[in-house]
Design a protein that fits this description.
317 residues, Rossmann fold, Dehydroquinate synthase-like, alpha domain, five-stranded parallel sheet, 12 helices, 53% helix, globular
Length: 317
Amino acid sequence: MLIASKTEIEIALGVSSAIEVALTYEDVAPHVPVEKAEKARAAAAEAGIDLLVCVGGGSTTGLAKAIALTSGLPIIAVPTTYAGSEATNVWGMTEASRKRTGVDDVVLPETIIYDAELTYSLPVGLSIASGLNALAHCIDSMWAPGSDPINQALAAEGIRALSEGLPRIKADPCDRKGREQALYGAYLSAVAFASAGSGMHHKICHVLGGAYNLPHAETHAAVLPHVLAFNAPAAPEAAARIAAAFGAEAAVDGLNALQEAIDAPRALRDHGLAEANIPEAVQLILPVIPPTNPRTVTQDNLQQLLQAAWAGTEPGH
């Protein structure tokens, strides 16, 4: 079963040209709505599928994982973005505007094929947002519930690689070295994230994405600077490692400089979040913030954080 969105199907057909495809499936949607997952599972069962090949970004990989979760079918993942889902055992689905995630080794792809040339067609804006999604995996891994010296080391190297690769992609979308560095960083970010688990940043983004149907990568890009600025003073060792990976004196300064250099998405209001949704979002997010977060999260400071992310103000200004 070949899974690819309509925008990626041409690449997918090229990738799969040497194998026999029993079913080509294009009904892919962000955040994997449960009804689409059930439809895809039924299609796989009806066709007698024995292997899933997903070509694309996080939504495509996510749908393959949803099928594997109940069928146990193996996955070959061919990523065309920097989402990193292909290297984790984390699955996610959305039902009734609520995103539910879980961990199960059955959804971890058996094989991943990375080819920088397959990412050339990813528009610069989406490349930047997707790369910042990977960067969020790295930064959140520094203080996530399962954070340890190993996944922190992977995350730090991921930050370095992404901060090198993304500006090169911005300058030249077909810069092979830049694309390779971004894929390398995305892989490291995913392995770190799978080990460390979801920290404060990911909990915020999962709620916002599921409840308000916000675009996944752009949401990560807009929220990340504010979570980093929020947690850094309470986690000085982690902040120092992040700063060093950026080659900056301070972690927040390093991220701000990168975002400015690559013209990163800044404001949630530009991507579908209404200001009127913020109070409700606060109530949805508070119960899922990990108790291990280095700084205590309250209704007031979370409201301030979301307000700043909605407006797109630069932390510290």
